[in-house]
Amino acid sequence: MSDWQQHLRDAIQDPRELLALLQLTEADLPRVDLSPAFALRVPRPFVARMRPKDPGDPLLRQVLSLTDEAMASPTYHLDPLNEHETVLPGVLHKYRSRVLVVFRGGCAVNCRYCFRRHYPYHSGTLRRQQLDDVLDYLRANPAVNEVILSGGDPLMADDAGLAEAMQALADMPSIRRLRIHTRLPVVIPARITDALLETLGSLSVPVIMVLHINHAQEIDEALADAVTRLRTVCRMVLNQAVVLAGVNDQVEAQVALSEALFAAGIDPYYLNVLDRVSGASHFAVDDADVGALYRGMLEQLPGFLVPTLVREVPGAGHKVPLMFDFAPC
Ligand SMILES: *Cc1c(COP(=O)(O)O)cnc(C)c1O
Ligand code: SF4
Questions:
Q1: Which protein residue's CA is at the shortest distance from atom 8 of ligand 2?
Q2: Using a 6 Å cutoff on CB, does residue 114 contact ligand 2?
């Protein structure tokens, strides 16, 4: 078993253990949910980046189950993006030139705000038959020139399975690039193995890696080293984040995130507004506050470190940019 698989196996699943590791008690976090419906799951390399004795730690807030998740909110839904409607099992084709493949159900970390927290994942990795079905679909739809491996988290699959699928996809004549959307290397940097790098570097099309990092404190030396290695084989290493109340809804946090991403060799791509998924309403930030946040970022960062601020709108053929009137005052 590889190091990263051992880290998966050792991930913390008991909220009490997480609190104890951080020298916190239930009295510090009276709203902790000790037996959440959506399981707690946090790999230890990620816990190591949390500040002990800080109940407000921005990394802890992303992963700790709270009773707030049980709050019913009429505008929050189980499937906010209509993702349960797929063209094939596990294949979403919402945008003309790209398909998103749920390559692997499940994640290394369970993020409490996740819009896929109620997604009915098929268990395990896409099987050979399903991969063949995807290849047939691509043959029938040559306007699709990019495949996005997503999940869950596609890097939960083992290196051999990934190599087989990525090679088959890259060899489709209509495919110009492959993309991987993953949070796994963020929480377990050891996931960037030599075998994975070898696969990514040997494909006939460029690969784009999109990571998911919400706060500068998530970037440590091990992650920066993993990104340095990734950059030798990927055409781009990008980041998408979600605006989360109490995590990164202050200008300083977003500026620090962009600067830390840049220092680690990662380029900001999207800043997503929270999807209205049941159980996540306590992470919501008002549009007006998001606008003020974004203005602050524009004032303090060079344009290439300002991610595009977007929202997912069910039925839209693309991510929808949030528009504000930023006339000079
Ligand atoms: C986000 C998303 C994509 C990728 O969109 P880009 O703007 O190309 O990053 C593709 N398909 C689906 C279903 C998505 O949700
Ligand atoms: S890693 Fe991504 S898909 Fe998985 S729980 Fe977190 S936000 Fe959701």
A1: 114
A2: yes
102: three-class secondary structure by DSSP: strand
- Segment holding 129, helix H or strand E: helix 128-140
83 Cβ below 6 A of ligand 2: no
For residue 171, pLDDT over 60 is answered with yes
pLDDT score for 157? 95
Which pair of structure tokens corresponds to residue 200?
Answer: 């990514």
| Contact present, 169 and 142 (Cβ < 8 Å) | no
Query: Average pLDDT of the chain?
Result: 94
Kindly tell me if the per-residue pLDDT of 230 is higher than 90.
Answer: yes
Query: Are 39 and 12 within 8 A, CB to CB?
Result: no
Kindly give the distance from the C-alpha atom of residue 61 to the centroid of ligand 2, in angstroms, as a whole number. Answer: 14
Three-state secondary-structure class, residue 226:
helix
pLDDT at 21 over 80: yes
Q: In the structure, which protein residues have their CB atom closer than 6 angstroms to any atom of ligand 1?
A: 92, 94-95, 98, 100, 148, 319
Which pTM was predicted? 0.96
Expressed in angstroms and rounded, the spacing between residue 259 Cα and the centre of ligand 2 is: 23
Query: Minimal CA–CA distance to 188: which of 215, 158, 217, 223?
Result: 223
Residue nearest to atom 7 of ligand 2 (CA): 114
Structure token digits, residue 306 = 């300002």
CA dist 136 to 104, 129, 174, 177, Å?
A: 19, 11, 12, 18
Q: CA-to-CA distance for 292 and 251, rounded, in angstroms?
A: 8
- Residues 191 and 178: their CA atoms lie apart, in Å, by 19
| pLDDT per residue as tens digits for the range 87-96 | 898 899 999 9
70 φ, ψ to 5°? -85, -5
Q: What is the distance between the alpha carbons of residues 143 and 96, in angstroms, rounded to a whole number?
A: 7
Position 10 pLDDT exceeds 80: yes
Contact present, 218 and 247 (Cβ < 8 Å): no
Q: Confidence class of residue 76 from pLDDT cuts 50, 70 and 90?
A: confident
